[in-house]
Amino acid sequence: MRLPLIALTLIALPVSAMAQQPPATNAAITVPAADVQAKIAAAQAAVASGKPLPPMELLALAPYRANIEYRTSVGGASTHREENEFFYAIEGSGHLVTGGKLVAEKDGGRNVMGSAIEGGSGRDLAKGDWVMVPAGVAHWFDRIDGRLVLMSIKMPK
């Protein structure tokens, strides 16, 4: 009885190990423009309350994840303790404030949230613009001109 059980275990081990292999990292991940536009259209259709939708994953390769953010109104401010955040404006425009101090600060562990920013410096952001916000720097979109569609990537510092 022991021999068949040992043989079965030895056969099952390689199969189990193969099932747990991570995906190949030598292959590129491609997201066609049509897929990006479909996500934007889905977000636009879902907007009913006027609040920003949660980010929608576009693609991921650990530890990175690219998201689509669809904003039609001003949301909260935040600081990411351990991550830099990269933004690319796909469509629309708005105003981004960085630096300064969070208002009504709430500690969320890896992130600190606030209702706004006091102080800081602002810049207009429009289609085609790129922004990198370093870890530990407060940031807040304090004006959205109709809508602002962003690609965002958080990167370990």
Automatic annotation (TrEMBL):
Q: Per UniProt, which keywords does this protein have?
A: Isomerase, Signal
Q: Which InterPro entries match?
A: Cupin_1 (IPR006045), RmlC-like_jellyroll (IPR014710), RmlC_Cupin_sf (IPR011051)
Q: Where is the Cupin type-1 domain?
A: 46-141
The residues the entry assigns to the signal sequence are: 1-19
Gene Ontology molecular function: isomerase activity
- Protein's UniProt name: Mannose-6-phosphate isomerase-like protein (Cupin superfamily)
Which organism does this sequence originate in? Novosphingobium sediminicola
